[in-house]
């Protein structure tokens, strides 16, 4: 049977492709040029991890290793191909959302682990995972002049957050394998359920408008 | 009598609460969901210090220590409570502006000190303090799609800037206690006067419009 | 004859002035106040280098050294003077675009060199140069609520990108002098040609609109 670290690695690859795809289509929607679209693909896939590494004071792995870059480049190429074929934004479709969920889960868990190994406090650990999982998307929406969707809609960062709290509870008590495994499965299950059921958090507004 | 470092610490706490409050209401105004509102509270209170620590190449204190996080969480909780009770944005009121001024002053001074102790040049020291004092607010406005108010209105960052120049002049000449004390009092006085008198800087415009 | 490092240093100075100028006029266009305009000048000139240094985990040179700051301050002063005299945005004129091209080339090459010396992978090296060359402009456009022009128009970051690939091919094979020299001249030639010929990259759009 596959070990949890193998599962995480696979989910990480899937996530890079899904995030690159999402970045490319965000760029196309914003009418960026070819370079802008590619940059958005790279930043969406790798931005969360880069910010994570900056926060724990190390040179971003995405800039030193080779595998994440290659996978992301493939994802961007695939996205441009899909755009040529379908001529429409496929990021809202269920298959893409499902592979995106794998990425969110794997990225979050990696962030929690890096945080715990860097001696952060509980808040820092959870924050690092949430940033790793959602930071890339946030950066790309910021660059295209949007209020990051992660802040205002959908049950997305919340899955990562709940996973983080579970990680805090289990890490140290159980083996790292078990703790990361439970966290990964929980985030994935939460996110997939949220996609199916259309969960979202309560929203605020100073005046009771419909929008 | 309280030492200057005790005063600074108290002002820092007050500032975290004021900044968290301001972040929460910015989030509510932007119709974010519960998580988005909380994230904005955290980023407004802690973002300036996080950027400061990244710039001098250390792991952000907010992610390793425990006290700032706890105070900020209390501030967010208080803000949500105040929102439930008053149902309106209280960040424009004088009491909130005054406790915010305490935060601006304490955060700025902390930034100047960290800059001086990290061997930055004069520009770097002043910049670090201004970023510590105003960076959190800037990040939260950026995330909600606004041009940071610190860049275009009010006599706010200017107080921090003037304090920084005073710090440069006094640091090394007098004891750290005296130098930080004078700087803190000056920023606070400037900001409180600016609130009372409605000071602002000259603005530019390529065409002489009224706005 | 001047060595390549002397040429680079001169181009770097010219670039700081050009970038500061561009930042100041972006700030004036966005109706910022005096402080905001100055901050935008500093960030446009120094922001790319600051992000570069953060990425390779060192304290930004702009905050420790003295020469870049001074040159940038002069550039800001010059820009405010030019604004007083001409009362219009001169950043779109050919002379400014040409000195800006010198900056883009010098900044990019510096970034490639820092990347190579920090042990980044090829992607990281190219990215570091592109960020050094275009990051300051991107930050200032982000702060004034615009979608960064580098992502959507003009043949600008592309010059840096092509230079980066050339640098990857030549670095290590030839002396650093030759490699950086060829790269610098290539970026400069590409950018100047792009200005003259009005080159741009293909743009995408999900619906075939005219804009």
Automatic annotation (TrEMBL), chains A, B, C:
The membrane topology noted for this protein in its Swiss-Prot or TrEMBL record is: Multi-pass membrane protein
Q: Where in the cell is it found?
A: Cell membrane
Q: Which residues form the Glycine transporter domain?
A: 11-83, 98-170
Q: Which Pfam families match?
A: Gly_transporter (PF03458)
Which UniProt keywords are present, listed alphabetically? Cell membrane, Membrane, Transmembrane, Transmembrane helix
List membrane-spanning regions.
Answer: 6-25, 32-51, 63-86, 98-116, 122-143, 155-172, 178-196
CC per GO annotation: plasma membrane
Q: Which domain of life is it from?
A: Bacteria
Would I find Hydrolase among this entry's keywords? no
Check the UniProt entry and state the signal peptide residues, or none: none
Please give the chief subcellular localization of this protein. membrane
- InterPro entries per the UniProt record, alphabetical: Gly_transporter (IPR005115)
The family assignment reads:
Belongs to the UPF0126 family.
The protein here is known as Putative membrane protein YeiH
Q: Which organism is it from?
A: Thermovibrio guaymasensis
């Amino acid at each position: 049977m596959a070990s949890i670290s193998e599962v995480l690695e696979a989910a990480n690859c899937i996530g890079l492709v899904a995030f690159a795809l999402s970045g490319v289509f965000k760029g196309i929607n914003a009418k960026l040029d070819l370079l802008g679209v590619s940059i958005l693909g790279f930043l969406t896939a790798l931005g969360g991890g880069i910010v994570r590494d900056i926060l724990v004071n190390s040179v971003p792995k995405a800039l030193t290793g080779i595998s994440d870059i290659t996978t992301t480049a493939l994802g961007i190429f695939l996205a441009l191909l899909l755009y040529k074929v379908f001529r429409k934004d496929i990021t809202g479709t269920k298959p893409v959302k499902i592979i995106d969920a794998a990425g969110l889960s794997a990225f979050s868990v990696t962030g929690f682990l890096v945080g715990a190994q860097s001696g952060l406090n509980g808040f820092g650990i959870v924050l690092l995972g949430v940033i790793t999982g959602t930071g890339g998307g946030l950066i790309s929406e910021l660059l295209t002049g949007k209020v990051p969707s992660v802040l205002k809609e959908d049950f997305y960062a919340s899955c990562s957050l709940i996973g983080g709290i579970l990680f805090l509870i289990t890490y140290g008590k159980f083996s790292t394998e078990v703790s990361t495994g439970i966290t990964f499965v929980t985030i994935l299950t939460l996110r997939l359920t949220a996609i199916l059921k259309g969960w979202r958090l309560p929203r605020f507004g100073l005046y009771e408008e419909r929008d």
